[in-house]
Amino acid sequence: MNTPSEDRAPVTNFIRDIIAHDIKSGKHSHIITRFPPEPNGYLHIGHAKSICLNFGVAQDFNGDCNLRFDDTNPEKEEQEYIDSIREDVAWLGFKWKSNPSASDYFDQLYEYAVSLINKGLAYVDSLSPDEMRAQRGTLTEPGTESPYRNRSIEDNLDFFKRMKAGEFADGEHALRAKIDMASPNINLRDPVIYRIRHATHHSTGDLWCIYPMYDFTHCLSDAIEGITHSLCTLEFEDHRPLYDWFLDQLDTPCHPRQIEFARLQLKYTLTSKRKLNQLVQEGIVDGWDDPRMPTISGMRRRGFTPESIRNFSDIIGVTKKDSMIEMGVLENCLREDLNVRAQRRMAVLNPLKIIIENYPEDQVEYFDGKNHPQYPDFGTRKIPFSRELYIEQEDFMEDAPRKFFRLAPGREVRLRFAYYITCQQVIKNEDGSIRELICSYDPESRGGNTPDGRKVKGTIHWVSAAHAIDAEVRSYDRLFNVVNPARAEDVHDTLNPKSLQIHPNGKLEPEIETSRQPLAYQFERLGYFIADKHSSAEKPVFNRTMSLRDSWAKIEKEQDKN
Ligand code: ATP
Ligand code: MG
Questions:
Q1: Is 273 a catalytic residue?
Q2: Is 489 a catalytic residue?
Q3: What pLDDT score was predicted for residue 558?
Q4: In this predicted model, what pLDDT tens digit does every residue of 189-223 receive, in sequence order?
Q5: Rounded to whole angstroms, how far apart are CA atoms 196 and 174?
Q6: Which residues lie at CB < 5 A from ion ligand 2?
Q7: pLDDT band at 449 (very low <50, low <70, confident <90, very high)
Q8: Closest-lying ligand to the alpha carbon of 77?
Q9: How much is the average pLDDT of 220-230?
C-alpha cells in the first residue's frame, strides 16, 4: 500500500546541500551525525524534527547516526527518561549506530581538561559562582579577569586533582578555559568547563564529584565519535566559536562541523521539557504520555503514526529562519496518513436508542461493510442490524429547522448501509428528556435504495443495540488555547479547559479490536480512533486521534474576519 509518506518527494535543504558537497569534494566518504538529548524529560515534537533531520540525512547519504545521551547534569537525569527516549526514537523508525552517553567519556574528558591546563589554557578559579557572574561583563562592557587567572600550571593541576578527589564543596572552585575576558562573544569569556557537584549520577553513581559543562562535553563527544556534521538549533550559533576553540586547542580524532538550524515552533504547543514536566508533576495531565501532550509518547498513545510525524518533518523543512508552524499542518499530515491506513467502522459516541416498530423482534440481518472505500485488500465485515439500534443524539432534533437533514419527527433518513427509517414517536422520561424514538423502516429500501427512486438527504450512522460493544471514548482538543503558550508567565493561564471530553457510554460495532494495538479506525463521520494503552476487552477505552476536518481552521478564519 502506498502511504503519503512513502510517496514523498526527495527532500532538499541547506544542510543536505552542505553534506552532498562534502561528499562530492571528497572531504568525507562516510558521514556520521548524532541526536544528543539530555535525559531529563520525555521527547517532544520539537525533538522529532531534530531526530528526523539527523537520522534522515544519515540514512539518505548511507551514513550513520548515533543516539547520544548528554548526561552531564546528575541532578535532573533519570533512567526512566533514557528508556523512553530509546523507545521513541525506535518507534519513529530510526536505528542508531551506537548509543553512548557523554558519561562514558568522563575519563577522556578529564584527560582533555588536564591537557588544557598543561597548555596554560585552563585554570582553577576560586571565585564563587556569584562573583564570577558579576565579573563576566555585559554585551557592551568587557568582563574582568579573575585574580586566580594566572595560577601556575602546577597549582592548577594540583587543585583540579583535589577537586576530583572530593576535597572541596560545591561551588568552591571551578575549572575555567583561559580565553579572553574582553571577547565580544560572552561565551568566550573564560567559560567554566568543570564544576563541583556532590551528587549521585544515574550511571556513574558516586564515582565523580566534578562534572564537565555542556559546551566542553559536546564538541569533544562529537570528536570522539567521529561525527562529521554536528547539527543543532540556532541558539548554539554563538557557541560555535567555543566549540571550535576547544577542538583547535586539543588533539582530537577529528574536527566536526557544527551547523545550526531553526528550532520547530508549533502554534498552540509547548516544546519545553521543563514546562511539560510541570504539567505532569501537578497532575494536570495523565503523565508524559497523556494523549494531549506534544510528547512523542503522548502522540503515540493518541494514535499518531510515525509516518505522519516523519512526513510533517519533511514538509516543514529545515531553514535558518525562525517561524511558527500552524498546528493544522501536523494535523493534516496525520489525517492524510490515517485516511489510507484506517479501517472504517461505525460507532456512536452519545447514544440515543431507537426502536423500529415494524421490524421483527428476533430478527438479525447482516450488511456487508467495506473496511476501506478505496482498498479492497482491507476486506469487508458483517454489520448486524436488528430492531433496536443506537444513533447519535446529535442526529436527532425534535424541533428541527427545514435544513436539518437528519432525523426529526415525521422525517425520513437513510441508515448507512441499511434501510430508510422514519421517526414516528418520541418517548420521554419523566424529566422531559428524550428516552427513545419509535421509528418505522421501509423494507423496500434495503441497502439504501428505494424502488420508487425516493430520495432522502441525510445518511446517519448507527450500531445494533444487542451487538454493540460498550466503550468509553475520549475526545481531545488542543491542550493549550493560546497561540504561543511559551510566552505566558503562568502555564495555567494557557490551558484549554475543554481539552478532554469523555463519552462514557460509547457504542461500537462488534468487529472492533478493543485491546491496544497499532490498528487505527475511522469511525464514520466522527474521526480517527485507536484503543488506549489501558483498553481491554473487559473495559474498552478509545481515544479520538483526530477529527475528520480541521474545525480550528474555520474558527481562526472567522476570528480573522472580525
Ligand atoms: P528543552 O528546552 O525542551 O529541554 P533542549 O533543547 O534542552 O529542549 P535537548 O535534550 O538538549 O533538549 O535536545 C536534544 C536535541 O534536540 C538538541 O540537539 C536540540 O537542539 C534539539 N531540539 C530540542 N528542541 C527542538 C525544537 N523545538 N526543534 C528542533 N530541535 C530541537
Ligand atoms: Mg538542552
A1: yes
A2: no
A3: 61
A4: 999 999 999 999 999 999 999 999 999 999 999 99
A5: 7
A6: 38
A7: confident
A8: 1
A9: 98
Same domain, 226 and 296: yes
For residue 519, report the distance from its CA to the centre of ligand 2, in Å. 35
Which residues form the pocket of ligand 1, taking CB atoms under 6 Å from any ligand atom? 36-38, 46-47, 49-50, 232-233, 263-264, 271-273
Interval between CA 347 and ligand 1 midpoint (Å)? 40
What is the percentage of the chain residues whose pLDDT exceeds 90?
91
230 with 83, same domain: the answer is yes
- Give the CATH number of the domain where residue 272 resides: 3.40.50.620
CB-based contacts of 438: which residues, under 8 Å, 6+ apart?
354, 355, 357, 423, 424, 425, 426, 427
Ligand number nearest to the C-alpha of 33 = 1
Distance CA 294, CA 310 (A): 15
The H or E element that residue 55 is part of is: helix 45-60
Q: Among 40, 47, 55, 330, which residue has the most ligand 1 atoms within 8 Å of its CB, making it the best to mutate?
A: 47
Record the pTM. 0.94
What average pLDDT does range 253-270 have in this prediction?
A: 97
The residue whose C-alpha atom lies closest to atom 18 belonging to ligand 1 is 232
Q: How far is CA 83 from the centre of its chain?
A: 16
Same domain for 221 and 207: no
Q: Which atom of ligand 1 is nearest to the CA of 41?
A: 4
CATH number assigned to the domain comprising residue 150: 3.90.800.10
What's the length of the chain? Answer: 562
3 occurs within a structural domain: no
Per residue in 419-441, pLDDT tens?
999 999 999 999 999 999 999 99
Flag whether pLDDT at 562 surpasses 60.
no
In the residue annotation, 263 being an active-site residue is answered as yes
Nearest ligand 1 atom to the CA of 49 is 29
pLDDT exceeding 70 applies to what percent of the chain? 96
The CA-based angle 343-446-468, given to 5 degrees, is 45
CATH number, domain of 531, equals 2.40.240.10
For the CA of 51, the closest atom of ligand 1 is 16
Residue 395's CB is within 10 A of a number of other CB atoms, namely: 22
Mean pLDDT rounded to a whole number for the chain:
94
Return the pLDDT at 310: 98
Cα–Cα dist 256/250, whole Å = 13
Quote the domain boundaries for residue 428.
347-461
